[in-house]
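User: Structure with protoporphyrin IX containing FE, C-alpha cells only please.
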Amino acid sequence: MNGVHAMLVHFPLAFWALATLMILAGVFLSGRFAELSRAGLLPVLVFSLLGAVAGLVSGWLVWPAEANLYSPLARNHILMAIWSLAIYSSITLLIWRFGALMFQGTQRWALVVLALAGGLLFAITGTLGGHLAGSPTHFSQLLAAFGWTVYETFYVPDAVLVALLLLAIIAAGVGLTAKTGDKG
Ligand code: HEM
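Assistant:
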C-alpha cells in the first residue's frame, strides 16, 4: 500500500501547490493570466480536497494504526496533513461562498495568508512523508533551525492554544461585523 500512498499523495500536493500559485497570481498580478487564475481556482481546490481524502485514507493503510500513532515522525506527518487539509478546506469554502470578492479589498490579504500558511504546511507534510519513506531532505534542517526537531512530537503549548482561540473569536467577530462589499 505504500506505493499507492506515494502515488496518490502527489495529487493533493500538486493541486495545493497550483492553488497557492493561482491565489498569489490572482491577488498580485493583473491581465489575462490573473483572470484565468481567479476563474479556475475553485475546480483546482475541489480536486485538491478529493486528492487529500485519497491521501489520508491510503496513509492509514500503509502501516498498522498502532505503528502510525506510535512513531512521533508519523504523528507529525498526520498532524501536518490534517492541518493542510483544514487550511485548504477553509480556502475552498471562502472561494465557493464569496468567489471574486475574495480577491478584492482587505479580504484578499486573508487569502494570501491562508495560501502561504497552507503552502508551508503541505511542504512539511511531504517532507515528513519523505522521512518516513527513507528520503530526508535539507528542509528538515531548516525546521530544526526554527526549533522543531521533526523526530519529536510537535506540540503547541496551552497558552498558544488559548491565544489562537482568542484570535479566532476576534477574527470571527471582525468578519461578522465587516461590510462584505468592502473594496478597501
Ligand atoms: C494529504 C495527506 C497526506 C500527504 C500529502 C502525504 C504525503 C506523503 C509523502 C509525500 C510521502 C512520501 C512518499 C514516498 O516518497 O515514498 C508519504 C509517506 C508516508 N505517509 Fe503520508 N501523506 C498524507 C497522509 C498520510 C496519513 C494520514 C498517514 C497515516 C495515517 C500517512 C502515512 C505515511 C507513511 C507511513 C509513509 C511512509 C511510507 C513508506 O514507508 O514508504 N500519510 N506521505
